[in-house]
Amino acid sequence: MSAGFSQLDDRGRLRHLITLDGLGRDLLEELLQRAEQHTSTPGEVPARGDTLRGWTVAILFAEPSTRTRASFELASVRLGADVINLDMALSSRAKGESLLDTIWTLQAMQVDAFVIRDAEAGLHEQVARHVAPHVSVISGGEAHVSHPTQGLLDALTIRQCKGGFERLAVAIVGDIRRSRVARSAHRALATLGVPEIRIVAPPEMMPDAAEYAGARRFESLDRGISGADVVMMLRLQHERAQGAEPTDLAAYHRDYGLTAARLARANTQAIVMHPGPMNRGVEIAPDVADGPQSVIRRQVANGVAVRMAVLAHLAEARRKRAP
Ligand code: NCD
User: Fold this and answer.
1) How far is C-alpha 104 from the geometric centre of its chain's CA atoms?
2) 215: CA distance to ligand 1 center in Å?
3) 11 CA distance to ligand 1 centroid (A)?
4) What is the fold, at CATH topology level, of the domain defined by 25-147+301-318?
5) How many C-beta neighbours within 10 Å does residue 106 have?
6) How does the average pLDDT of the chain come out, rounded?
7) Separation between Cα atoms, residue 63 and residue 53, nearest integer Å
8) pLDDT at position 94
9) The predicted structure's pLDDT at residue 244
10) Which residue ranges of the chain lie beneath pLDDT 70?
11) For ligand 1, which residues put their CB under 6 angstroms from it?
């Protein structure tokens, strides 16, 4: 986030949600607590509310998405908002319209919040600087930099399964260098007090030394997950690798794929996480993805609850700012 821009208002409430960087523990805990109220048991009628009644949420995604996009839409609708879902590859941006012109066009239709996914770093902040004062910008993924609602849903899932964050060892494994999921998970978990965060990756997927302050680095998967309470697997980010990714996926699976035999090195109660989409047989073996330690579908369910919590927080903060 550049100097002179803040995603918080003068009460310390969110005006936008672009990154978890700089957000305090109390605010993260409040969002998790709020998300907890929006969780529902599979098969039950999902939690609903009317916090967003009268709001219009525009979802503008310029990169592929299944979970994030669907859950932002469901979260908005379940809180009473109207939703516009624009595939940016098919919008007028493809005819040369600038993103800001697209934003101003939709703002003229009374959009209250923009949920944006884009491959360009810094774009979310740029949009946030230009929207009307009452309008919020929420990141649904920014390049390799940030994916704040994913970080929150990962934290919520860990808290539900482990009862808290103290005393945990969390191993994040795979293409850390190019992963916005890993960056936001690290930020959330470090802020919430996880004492031991490990990043496990081959040398070419390790982030620069200045990043991931406090995390322990491992090139060996076996050592990196040994005794871990949480094992978070990541997909190879081919779309951002520009040819630097391994072409021998069988060799990658052999060295960095999570198999049942490998998982046995972690704590016996360890949970297995993955943000999706999974490449089965590459970073994770199918029997582990579907096995008893996997909480991958719970992460998906929590994604809706967390996005409801963020939207509700933004709406309440806006109401309190109103003159
Ligand atoms: C991730 C993303 O887009 O960053 N997916 C997600 O939002 N659940 C992870 C990925 O694409 O590997």
Assistant:
1) 26
2) 21
3) 32
4) Rossmann fold (3.40.50)
5) 19
6) 96
7) 28
8) 77
9) 77
10) 323
11) 67-68, 141, 147, 150, 180-181, 235, 275-277
Residue 158's alpha-carbon distances to 27, 185, 270, 274, in angstroms, are: 17, 11, 10, 12
What is the pLDDT at residue 296? 98
The amino acid at 199:
I
Of 106, 102, 99, which is closest to residue 135 (Cα–Cα)? 106
- Rounded to a whole number of angstroms, the distance between the first and last alpha carbons of the chain is 28
Q: Alpha helices of 226-284 — where are they, by DSSP H?
A: 238-241, 249-256, 260-263
Q: Are strands 136-142 and 169-173 parallel, antiparallel or unpaired?
A: unpaired
Residue 241's pLDDT is what? Answer: 85
Q: What is the pTM of this model?
A: 0.97
Closest CA to 23 of 170, 148, 167: 148
The answer, yes or no, to whether the previous bond of 277 is cis (omega within 30 of 0) is yes
Q: Domain 148-295: give its CATH architecture.
A: 3-Layer(aba) Sandwich (3.40)
Q: Outline which parts of the chain fall under CATH 3.40.50.1370.
A: 25-147+301-318, 148-295
Ligand 1 center to 276 CA (angstroms):
6
| Nearest-angstrom CA–CA distance, 207 and 144 | 11
